[in-house]
Amino acid sequence: MRRGHSLNMGVLTEVSNEEELERAIALKAKVVGINNRDLRDMSIDLNRTASWRRAWIMM
Fold it and tell me: Where does the Indole-3-glycerol phosphate synthase domain start and stop, copy by copy (predicted)?
């Protein structure tokens, strides 16, 4: 993130699980994209993030 910001670039931080989301929040990511794809089998489950704690879901 720092490198992108130092180049005056917007930074999209992609997360695919709750642990990564917590890390992105701790790093003060300004834009977070949630990937609902399971990278093991490439399936997509739009309800995947519904199981995450509501406190972390920011819209």
Answer: 4-50
Parent domain of 26: 2-47
Tell me how far apart the alpha carbons of residues 51 and 38 are, in angstroms, rounded to a whole number. Answer: 14
Tens of pLDDT, residue by residue over 14-55, are 998 888 988 998 998 989 998 999 888 999 988 878 777 665
pLDDT band at 59 (very low <50, low <70, confident <90, very high): very low
7 in a domain, yes or no? yes
15-24's contacts with Cβ under 8 Å and 24+ in sequence apart are 18/52, 18/53, 18/56, 21/52, 21/56, 22/56
Give me the number of domains the chain comprises. Answer: 1
